[in-house]
């Protein structure tokens, strides 16, 4: 038997407490009252009482409780010496962790890594066993722990470099588990890698068990010379006409010398543009391809660096499509001046997306004006009368956004006929704050999708605007309050009508009531509100291997009803994967570089949705870290001298059973305390009766 | 007439002193006690303080024939008339010790409570026999005094009810003053715990006896005073003097009991020498048992005398 925390045995000193209590037994402060001392004679009791242990049973029980507690907290456990002797007598187990991330494809790293594995196998003794674990962002055991080296060699020959990034933690965890299941005391992890810094975080601390050893084999070799794409942005080319786009690629040079490389942009199978780029030593540059006219739907495109030795990160796959617009209809009261000037100008400046603006007076408004609009803005204009109003409600219920700005010209009687689900309460009279400095926005819900862009620091101060008047929106209106004025009244409220979103704004978009339109924050506020009302999502131009695509989301954005249909994904290598309908959220892990093609199974002839997957840019960062840091960051679980090396071969249940003695001791303490309570009660009863 | 042997049979009521002490109405308590032991005797025994036989005298014409002693006539062929002492109603004075030591209790009922109940019971018994009842509470001096009178029964009960333990007690001075206050001879029942030297107690009682009073000392003691059952070493505090004495009870218990027993025997002997009745009252025993035993014994003693 051993003790896990022998320091707690010092608690045995607490036995002195009951000893002192029973020996000293201080004089009771309350005297025994007696009618007369006529027949009593003084006889001091202290001297003799101290010499005698009173209530010996109680005393023994109390000492026992203290001793059991101290022993229990020192966590005694039994070790299996026989079993331990058995495991230490055999050979060692070795788990070879082979890095197959994309960076291992550089130069001759992969061949050196395989050679290192072979050397490791050759160095093992006859009793030793070996297993092979390959890893990138994931880890997999491809050869079981066995004396047979051929299984490892066979698995090794089948392995190829992947396009994923590097993560050491999964490999180390799997390796430790493989060794733990092997049951031998002598265990070794052999890590064969280029030790990319991006794959290791010191917080990924993995403790080694007693008896485990980590050996690092660095195959990174000499300095890296590489040119790689680091990212790409596609935006509308406002300088060009007819919805042209501009592709901006970022390319980096890893190497001690500056380089001049040729880069090309291909859309589909054809190169459409090329440039020569001068790259500084260990630096980067941007490459811009402007004025590109592209198809309305997404097309495969490639940015390629030519003349580089490491080809895996020389191609960046992306999707190019004609920029999406958000069509907006601004409706104003008839006969008034152009109060929508600031609103319109803010929308004109929108780039991602751009806004297609149509402006109408309410009297001239027709159904055709909003039939295909993404967002309808009723800027002080009341609700349309008759069938136009009915069609407008239908349009909103079918998914259009409706923004109602209640400014100075909003006539309450014109809003009285609005459908109750659009505006259930009458428009209220404006609140006049002109007496002081005016009102301001006191609170905004930065967690809401429409306003989350203002959550970051220096993202715009919405409280800077001053409102001398505004129309308070009642909280009883229903819906979600997104912003409040500083007097607590709601300023911006969202309601849902069918599939459409309705936003009510009480401050107006003109300068008659506030200086909000003159504030810099007005522009992003308008853009975010309109994006949200339109349900706009920016297309993802390029993604990385290892990313996960929400298929329902991706196909829903493409207009395919996702949940009712099975989805078929075709990988870059031509594999066909089917995702059944109505199985909850479906997702696809991008496990290779290239273009994934997604189609709904119910619409085989429809144009597929494309996803561009690229090698993780982190794999193009060849900075390494010292493998000894990895070893140093993996502290040993416990000192092997305690015998836990053998325990590591046990299952968790067995280990717990070995150490569960202290629970029994605590149970014994409980029983003894119960007996002590009974004995003490009896003693007290005897005393009180006396 | 039932003899003493049969009269000493155990009573059936056995009223718990702790129960009696919790009843505020002393008259009710006294009635329960007295009627209890009277019912147990089937009202067949002439008990009381007034029916005391004195002597025979020769019959003279005109005497009530009911008072002829026919037994004497049967033995001697002489007509003799039975004469009784104090044929008229007598005074019964209840003197209750209210010194601090009387407040002691080891089991919920203090000695003072028991004294109240006994005093009320005797008063009830006397009033039932149309005797005059008086009351005196004393500690170092007379604390309260109600002269004996036929109409003072309720007053006596009220005074008993409100009697509270006072300061340190004394016997000689208050009893001497009580003797001075009582101009007419009668019966004085002294309820006390007798924490005085036996000679002092006997002298005090002897003074009353010399004045012609019939004196009964009821020595009220708690069971703990008799047995001294304490086990733990502790400091004992005298209720009256506040003197603190550290003790190991187990070591001196026998000595204490012996001292107490000797004290009681001495008291009994000295009091009897002076013609004073001495009765010990254990507060843990049923009160009517105590009263009954005493009254039966008193009757027997009267016959002997």
Describe this structure in words.
The complex is a heterodimer of chains A (690) and B (305). Chain A is α/β, with parallel strands linked by helices and 690 residues long. In chain A, the strands form 8 sheets. Chain A has an 8-stranded mixed β-sheet. In chain A, strands 6-5-4-7-8 form a 5-stranded mixed β-sheet, with helices on both faces. In chain A, helix 5 (109-123) packs antiparallel against helix 6. Mean pLDDT of chain A is 83; it is low at 46-51, 81-89 and 638-649. With 305 residues, chain B is an alpha/beta fold. Chain B has 2 domains: 4-44 and 89-287, Rossmann fold, CATH 3.40.50.410; 52-85, no CATH class. Chain B is built from 11 helices and 10 strands. Chain B has helices at residues 4-7, 17-22, 26-40, 70-76, 111-128, 153-162, 172-181, 198-210, 223-227, 249-273, 287-304, and strands at residues 52-58, 80-85, 91-97, 132-138, 142-149, 186-192, 214-221, 234-238, 244-247, 277-282. Chain B is elongated. Chains A and B meet through strand 2 and helix 2 of A and strand 8, strand 9 and helix 10 of B.
């Amino acid at each position: 038997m051993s003790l896990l925390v022998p320091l707690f045995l010092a608690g045995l000193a607490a036995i002195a407490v009951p000893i002192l209590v029973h020996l000293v037994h201080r004089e009771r402060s309350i005297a025994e009252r007696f009618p007369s001392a006529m027949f009593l004679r003084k006889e001091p009791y202290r001297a003799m009482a101290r010499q005698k242990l009173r209530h010996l049973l109680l005393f023994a029980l109390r000492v026992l409780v203290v001793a059991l507690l101290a022993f229990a907290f020192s966590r005694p456990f039994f070790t299996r010496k026989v079993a331990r002797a058995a495991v230490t007598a055999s050979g060692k187990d070795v788990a070879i962790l082979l890095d197959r991330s994309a960076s291992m494809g550089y130069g001759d790293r992969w061949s050196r890594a395989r050679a290192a594995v072979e050397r490791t196998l050759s160095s093992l003794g006859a009793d030793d066993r070996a297993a092979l674990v390959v890893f990138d962002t994931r880890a997999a055991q491809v050869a079981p722990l066995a004396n047979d080296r051929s299984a490892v060699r066979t698995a090794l020959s089948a392995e190829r470099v992947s396009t994923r990034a590097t993560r050491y933690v999964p490999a180390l965890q799997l390796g430790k588990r493989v060794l733990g299941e092997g049951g031998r005391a002598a265990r070794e992890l052999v890590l064969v890698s280029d030790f990319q810094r991006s794959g290791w975080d010191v917080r990924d601390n993995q403790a080694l068990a007693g008896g485990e050893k980590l050996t690092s084999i660095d195959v990174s070799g000499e300095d890296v010379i590489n040119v790689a794409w680091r990212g790409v942005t596609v935006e509308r080319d406002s300088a060009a006409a007819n919805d042209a786009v501009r592709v901006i690629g970022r390319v980096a040079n890893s190497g001690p010398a500056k380089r001049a490389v040729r880069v090309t942009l291909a859309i589909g199978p054809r190169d459409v543009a090329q440039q020569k780029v001068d790259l500084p030593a260990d630096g980067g540059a941007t490459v811009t391809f402007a004025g590109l006219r592209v198809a309305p739907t997404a097309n495969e495109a490639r940015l390629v660096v030519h003349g580089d030795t490491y080809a895996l990160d020389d191609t960046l796959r992306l999707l190019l499509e004609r920029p999406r617009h958000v069509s907006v209809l601004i409706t104003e009261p008839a006969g008034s001046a152009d109060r929508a000037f600031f609103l319109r100008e803010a929308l004109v400046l929108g780039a991602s997306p751009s806004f297609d603006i149509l402006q109408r007076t309410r009297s001239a408004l027709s159904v055709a004006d909003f039939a295909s609009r993404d967002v309808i803005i009723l800027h002080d204009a009341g609700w349309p009368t008759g069938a136009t109003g009915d069609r407008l409600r239908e349009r909103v219920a079918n998914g259009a956004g409706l923004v109602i700005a209640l400014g100075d010209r909003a006539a309450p009687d014109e809003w009285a006929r609005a459908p109750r689900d659009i505006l259930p309460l009458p428009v209220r009279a404006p609140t006049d704050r002109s007496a002081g400095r005016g009102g301001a926005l006191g609170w905004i819900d930065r967690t809401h999708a429409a306003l989350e862009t203002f959550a970051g620091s220096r993202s715009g101060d919405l409280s800077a605007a001053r409102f001398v008047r505004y129309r308070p929106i009642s909280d009883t209106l229903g819906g979600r309050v997104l912003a409040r004025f500083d007097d607590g009244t709601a300023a911006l409220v969202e309601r849902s009508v069918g599939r459409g979103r309705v936003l009510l704004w009480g401050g107006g978009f003109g300068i008659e009531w506030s200086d909000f339109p003159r504030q810099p924050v007005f522009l992003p506020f308008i853009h975010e509100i309109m994006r949200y009302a339109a349900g706009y999502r920016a297309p993802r131009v390029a993604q990385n291997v290892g990313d996960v695509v929400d298929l329902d989301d991706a196909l829903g954005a493409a207009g395919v009803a996702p949940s009712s249909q099975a989805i078929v994904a075709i990988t870059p290598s031509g594999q066909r994967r089917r995702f059944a309908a109505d199985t909850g959220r479906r997702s696809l892990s991008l496990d290779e570089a290239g273009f994934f093609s997604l189609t709904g199974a119910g619409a085989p002839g429809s144009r597929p949705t494309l996803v561009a997957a690229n090698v993780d840019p982190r794999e193009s960062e060849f900075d390494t870290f010292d493998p000894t840091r990895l070893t140093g960051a993996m502290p040993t679980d416990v000192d092997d001298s305690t015998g836990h090396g053998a325990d590591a071969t046990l299952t968790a249940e067995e280990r717990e059973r070995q150490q569960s003695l202290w629970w029994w001791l605590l149970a014994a303490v409980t029983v003894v305390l119960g007996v002590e309570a009974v004995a003490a009660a009896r003693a007290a009863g005897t005393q009180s009766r006396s | 007439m039932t003899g003493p042997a049969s009269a000493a049979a155990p009573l059936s009521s056995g009223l718990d002193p702790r129960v009696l002490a919790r009843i505020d109405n002393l008259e009710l308590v006294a009635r329960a006690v007295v009627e209890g032991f009277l019912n147990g005797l089937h009202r067949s025994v002439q008990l009381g303080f007034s029916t005391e036989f004195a002597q025979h005298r020769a019959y003279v014409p005109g005497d009530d024939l009911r008072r002829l002693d026919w037994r004497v006539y049967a033995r001697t062929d002489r007509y003799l008339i039975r004469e009784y002492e104090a044929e008229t109603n007598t005074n019964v004075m209840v003197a209750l010790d209210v010194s601090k030591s009387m407040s002691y209790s080891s089991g919920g009922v203090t000695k003072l409570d028991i004294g109240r109940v006994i005093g009320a019971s005797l008063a009830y018994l006397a009033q039932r026999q149309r005797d005059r009842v008086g009351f005196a509470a004393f500690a170092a001096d007379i604390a309260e005094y109600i002269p004996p009178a036929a109409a003072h029964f309720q007053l006596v009960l009220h005074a008993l009810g409100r009697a509270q333990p006072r300061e340190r007690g004394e016997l000689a001075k208050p009893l001497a003053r009580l003797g001075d206050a009582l101009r007419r001879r009668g019966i004085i029942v002294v309820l006390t715990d007798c924490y005085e030297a036996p000679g002092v107690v006997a002298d005090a009682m002897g003074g009353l006896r010399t004045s012609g009073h019939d004196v009964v000392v009821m020595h009220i003691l708690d069971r703990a005073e008799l047995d001294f059952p304490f086990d733990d070493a502790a400091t004992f505090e005298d209720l009256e003097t506040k003197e603190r004495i550290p003790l190991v009870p187990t070591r001196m218990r026998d000595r204490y009991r012996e001292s107490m027993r000797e004290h009681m025997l001495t008291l009994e002997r000295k009091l009897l020498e002076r013609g004073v009745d001495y009765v010990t009252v254990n507060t843990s025993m049923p009160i009517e048992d105590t009263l009954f035993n005493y009254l039966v014994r008193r009757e027997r003693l009267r016959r002997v005398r």
